[in-house]
Amino acid sequence: MGRATVLPTKADLARDAEDQPLVWSARWSLTTRILAVNIVAIALLAGGFFYLDTYRSRLVDTRVGVMEDQLAQLDDALEAARPDQRQRLIDAFTRATASRLRFYAADGTRRYDSFDHGPPTYTLRDPNIQPWKRDAARAMDRGIDWIVGAPNYPDFEEPEVDRGAAWPEVVQTLKSGAGTTRFRYAPERTPLLTATRIVDLDTPQVMLMTLNARDITRTVRAERFRLAVVVAIVLLTSVLLSLFLARTIVRPLRKLARAAVRVRLGRAREVVVPRLPSRRDEIGTLARALSDMTQALRERIDAGEHFAADVTHELKNPIASVRSAIEGLGRVKTDEQRAQLLAIADEDVRRLDRLVTDISDASRIDAQLSRTSFEPIDVGLMIESMLASRAARAESKDVPQPRIAFARPRKGTTMVMGDGHRLERVIDNVIDNAISFSPPGGLVCVRATRLGSDVHIGVDDDGPGIEPAQRDAIFRRFHSERPDGAFGRHSGLGLAIARTIVEGHSGHIAARDRDDGQPGASLLITLPAAEAASGEN
After folding, report:
1. How many angstroms separate the CA atoms of 388 and 457, rounded?
2. Is the Cβ–Cβ distance between 422 and 498 less than 8 Å?
3. Residue environment code for 156-173, b if the CB has 16+ CB neighbours within 10 A, otherwise e
4. Alpha carbons 362 and 477: distance in angstroms, whole number
5. Longest C-alpha distance within the chain, in Å?
6. pLDDT digits (tens, 9 = 90+) for 87-142
7. Three-state secondary structure call for residue 416
8. Nearest CA-CA partner of 209 in 357, 124, 101
9. Cα(130)–Cα(150) distance, integer angstroms
């Protein structure tokens, strides 16, 4: 059968998304990225200038619509009024609307101009004689119009000869018979709006209304100024907050990076990675994690150095003994002496082999545990199988061995998660240690029980016991206090390896007195119980 396809989970997809590299911003510093993100937000706020352009367009459209309605009302009023009342109506209209009215005959001749019959209702100002502030305002208007892409309206110029042909909207109205409107910029860049309509006053005429809508420019400029002030304040605040945020993030990160570089260079063992205790955020967590990691690395390095020194010391003794035996072979006279020296050399070589094997295991065990996948282990069944194999091996030996008693627990009650091969090594080392301290014909008691959320494995012997001051030292590497006649048969690494394996399984191993008060020592191993066995007691 084909292999089933495993679909990625949401957690896998989220982790892959977090691991995606930064492509376009990979070379930016963290400060630059923070500033860029905040300035982009300000740029979105500055997009309000685009809205103001549409706001101005709506104002112009509204004003043009009002002009068309006003011309329609004036047309009705002029047609209904007597000829002698028309001038009064036009004067009232131009004053009320602040506009200028002109009438053109069908041949383009100007028939009437409201400015000829009264004071002007508006004045086109010369920008050359205005203060520089007006020039700056107009330059800003042009710049913003260019940025937002506003329509490029033509400039207004008063015709030298005021005829209908000088006004495109009048010509268009005469041709189509319908009114039209037009937008131009006055010389001071204010909207100049025009609207036309055909009226029948004795003869058909085109009525042209012009209006200088300075209020639209004032309104738009005021809104732009307010928006510019808001954008400037927000921009300044955002930049200051970004710099503050970058300072609170980048400075501690740089400090941590410099400390990490000094630790990597190894030039000063006293280099201290700052823990930043006042930081309660992710950077503080990172600083403390780096500090703890550095301290753990130093301890591992120191342990490695001590281990190398201990290994050198432990290897020197058997090597010196072998060398002495080999040198003595050339000087001895009898076969008995030669056999004695060969036996010594053989024993030393065996001791070297045990040392090298245990040293190799001790140096690799941490790395191997980190790569091992734990599985459910029934400790009771495992110990029972181990003791059966040990009993079979003991029957082939002539030397009497201490007896081993095992209180086998009920099946499934002592389940742990772990590496079965490593746990067997632990129990085997502890039992070997108990046997080495027990007298011939003594009794070694082994038990495994479930207590709460832990599994306890105990090994008791009939030996002399362990002094309280030595109960932690026996788990150190190359601990060499052995019973009489046992020196050289052990590497001094068995219990150290056992403790490393137990701690790699989140457990604990300790030496204590026997619970029954009898002479001897008791080693207790505590391991977390597997969840699968939580209902079996």
Report:
1. 17
2. no
3. beeeeeeebebbebbbbb
4. 9
5. 163
6. 999 999 999 999 999 999 989 899 999 999 889 998 888 888 888 878 887 887 78
7. strand
8. 101
9. 25
pLDDT digits (tens, 9 = 90+) for 9-30: 555 555 554 445 444 444 566 6
Contacts of 536 (CB under 8 A, 6+ apart): 410, 412, 413, 415, 450
> DSSP letters of 168-180?
HHHHHHHHHSS--
DSSP code, position 524: E
Which domains are present in the chain? Answer: 48-224 (3.30.450.20), 272-371 (1.10.287.130), 373-537 (3.30.565.10)
Give 8's Cβ-side CA count (13 Å radius).
Answer: 8
Q: Count H helices, E strands: the chain?
A: 12, 12
Confirm if 449 and 455 have CB atoms less than 8 A apart: yes
Cα→Cα distances 483→9, 294, 431, 446, 521, Å: 58, 40, 15, 21, 13
426/423 Cα distance (integer angstroms):
5
User: What is d(CA 292, CA 284) in angstroms, rounded to the nearest whole number?
Assistant: 12
pTM: 0.47
The single residue listed with the structure tokens 């709006």 is 193
Of 317, 342, 343, nearest in space to 329 by CA: 342
Triad 219, 220, 225: Cα angle to 5°: 100
